[in-house]
Amino acid sequence: MMAARRFSAATPSSPLLLRRRLLSSQPQPTAAAAEADAGAGEWVRRAGALSLLGLTGAVAASAVSDLSVFLSCSSQAIEKASQNQQIVNAIGAPIVRGPWYSASIAVNHARHSVSCTFPVSAPQGNGLLKFKAVRSGDESWFSFLQPNDWEILLMDAILDVPTDDGKHQTIRVTIPDNTAPPPAIDCKACKSQPTLTPPPPPSPSPPQK
Predict the structure, then answer these.
(1) To pair with 158 at 20 to 30 A between CA atoms, which of 95, 113, 189, 203?
(2) Secondary structure class of 170 (helix, strand, coil)
């Protein structure tokens, strides 16, 4: 009986023993394969970080360029508004630009035109200036940073002026283009030509006798 118990204890009938043998018989990953997987994962993480950094830089550069365009064009718009007597009579002077985060700006893809609306304030009231400008400089990428390259074509002012009875009055002013008309052409060649005098009519012949 003792021999039978020893035999049954020595037989590999235990499930735990079978599981251990199966696990030990499976091939284990080598150290080289583990290092290769770790290296591939590191390259993927680096590529993702570089892509995110490039995208962030592009967005930041676009924001800086839009801010530069806004500051340049809004300064010209305030200058034109300060020269308009109707606006000065309504809200006073000086006219101060409002915060940039309250403005809306749209620049086309080629950066040749811009549309903008921004708030202004003055001693007697406040309002909004709306304008459309075009770039007249060269085609270089950084030419939009030059303030003199932008020319305002259309501009409107929506003014909010308080009245004597405590209410507010809205005034809309369209600022015309201040571009001087082209000078008249002085055609000296036309003046130097002699004036043609028509010949006198022929005198009637005397009657024949």
Answers:
(1) 113
(2) strand
- Nearest CA among 88, 69, 83, 82 for reference residue 151: 69
Q: Catalogue all structural domains in the chain, each as residue range(s) with its CATH number.
A: 59-178 (3.10.450)
Query: Helix, strand, coil: what percent of the chain each, to 5?
Result: 45, 20, 30
Place of tokens 């770790």: 38
Q: To which residue do tokens 């309002």 refer? A: 127
State the pTM of this model.
Answer: 0.53
In the chain, the amino acid numbered 4 is: A
What does pLDDT average to in each consecutive run of 10 residues of the chain (209 residues)? 49 54 54 60 65 56 66 87 91 90 82 87 92 73 56 90 84 71 50 60 61
pLDDT at position 165, please? 83
What kind and span of H or E run contains 143? none
